Amino acid sequence: MKITSRFSIAVHTLLLIYFFQRSRNVTSNFIASSVNTNPVVIRRILSNLKEAGLIEVLPGRNGSKLIKNPNKISLLDIFKAVDSIDTLFNFHDNPNPECPVGKNIHTALDGHLIDAQKALEDSLAKTTLEDLIKEINQKENLL
Amino acid sequence: MKITSRFSIAVHTLLLIYFFQRSRNVTSNFIASSVNTNPVVIRRILSNLKEAGLIEVLPGRNGSKLIKNPNKISLLDIFKAVDSIDTLFNFHDNPNPECPVGKNIHTALDGHLIDAQKALEDSLAKTTLEDLIKEINQKENLL
DNA sequence: TTTATCTGTAACCAAATTAGTTACAATAAC
DNA sequence: GTTATTGTAACTAATTTGGTTACAGATAAA
Q1: Any residues with CB less than 8 A from the CB of B103 and at least 6 apart, and which?
Q2: Strand D contacts (CB < 7 A) among B residues 22-51?
Q3: I need a surface site. Which of A111, B30, B37, B46 has the fewest CB within 10 A?
Q4: Do A36 and B101 count as a contact with CB atoms less than 8 A apart?
Q5: Buried b (16+ CB within 10 A) or exposed e, A84-107
Q6: Percent share of chain A, pLDDT over 70
Q7: What's the CA dihedral at B78, B84, B89, B92 to 10 degrees?
Q8: H helix count then E strand count, chain B
Q9: Is B131 left (phi over 0), alpha (psi -120 to 50) or beta?
Q10: Which chain B residue is nearest to residue A89, measuring alpha carbons?
Q11: Is A44 within 7 A of strand D by CB distance?
């Protein structure tokens, strides 16, 4: 099973807000046309990003603004904002406690699953929105 | 979104085969009663583990056996056997190429997503079935 | 050789999740 | 006042998951 596209859409959304917030109102419609989806899908994600304290969504028709410095917004922050996973790995319910394996499987495995999830999260934490902004600026200037 | 319980069931299954293969036929029914699910669910996973070269499923009513040393079977091997994910992260389709962000988002983000997936996999690769066997033996001896 | 057991697989189901959609009240800009 | 936008509810279609029944084919045990 996979991590949903809500995450990549959220990153895309924040980049659009960063690049366009000074020149125009960054509305859900504008974002949707760059992401290529429905504006309501974007509004749901904007709602998550607002809740996480990464953006403000201005009332009326004023679009959204970043309220944190891009170098303070990591991919992990974005991931947690939109995909609020507590534990990445599912575990089968109620293994048989009469069995030596069933009785101990949780204790034996849980720590390793937490480690793996932490490794994923630590990796995401290393990259910031600013890093992506630089990469895009570089690509655009090369043209 | 989460990683399915197929993974934890597969680990449970391999541990059962290890601990019981000498004393009884480890059948899908026996495994299912320890995992607490339906035997067909187990057979599907046994099929994956066989395909991955981790076990042999003996014909008739002879159960399954490990065909690799537990210290050569990592959690990553098991994960890949049952959850065959190519890319862990979904990415939204067809971002708008007319937009500087839409045009570059894939290039900017893909590498970081691959890094994060690799970090998860490297972590899973560190633990072997033997490690779990030791942990269970330790727990059982303490009783 | 007959009977019981087990695997492999197809077919189906219910529940959950996802992305997408329509609709509309509330709000602010123009 | 009119228009544009947000926030949210409600609905849909598609997909995935775990569970289930059914059964042909293979093997062990009697």
Answers
A1: A139, B95, B96, B97
A2: 37-38, 40-41
A3: A111
A4: no
A5: eeeebbbbbeebbeebbbbbbbee
A6: 98
A7: -170
A8: 6, 2
A9: alpha
A10: B3
A11: yes
Place of tokens 């998550």: A48
DSSP-H helix ranges across chain A: 6-20, 28-35, 39-51, 75-83, 100-125, 129-142
Which of A81, A65, A60 has the alpha carbon at shortest distance from A24?
A65
**Distance set, CA A103 to CA A121, B25, B59, B136 (Å):** 29, 20, 29, 9
pLDDT category of residue A105 using cuts at 50, 70 and 90 = very high
Q: What is the pLDDT of residue B143?
A: 61
Tell me the per-residue pLDDT of A108-132, one tens digit each, with 9 for 90 and over.
Answer: 999 999 999 999 999 999 999 999 9
Chain A: residue whose CA lies nearest to B75: A112
Which single residue has its CA nearest the C1' atom of nucleotide C19? A41
Displacement of CA B58 from its chain's centroid (Å): 21
Residue B1: predicted pLDDT: 65
DSSP A90-117: ---S---TTSHHHHHHHHHHHHHHHHHH
CATH of domain B6-142: 1.10.10.10
Cβ of residue A39 lies below 7 Å from strand D: yes
pTM beyond 0.90, yes or no:
yes
pLDDT of A58 > 90? The answer is no
Local confidence band at B109 (pLDDT 50, 70, 90 cut-offs): very high
Inter-chain touch A7–B75, beta carbons under 8 Å: no
